[in-house]
Write a structure and sequence with these properties.
single chain, 52% helix
Length: 81
């Protein structure tokens, strides 16, 4: 919900990547697992600023700047295959 409140949206590919990651995290959880913290941290640590810095200003638009892509998510060490 905090994504929507801030005007962000997940691309369908990012959504699929997150669902796969969360499912894996839940299935391999231990006593320290906290799903709300996990979700919040991944999204808040998204690398949108980095992607925007590499994109020329004239190529940016509101949709691009508010859409979270798989490359923006901080879960690259997890294989979703």
């Amino acid at each position: 919900m905090f994504l929507i409140d801030r005007g962000y949206r997940l691309s369908s590919e990012a959504y699929d990547k997150l669902i796969h990651y969360y499912k894996h995290a839940y299935e391999t959880r231990d006593q320290t697992f906290g799903n709300a913290d996990l979700a919040r941290n991944i999204v808040f640590e998204a690398n949108l600023d980095y992607r925007m810095a590499r994109t020329p200003k004239e190529e940016r638009d509101d949709t691009m700047m508010k859409t979270i892509l798989p490359i923006d998510l901080n879960i690259d060490s997890f294989s979703n295959s």
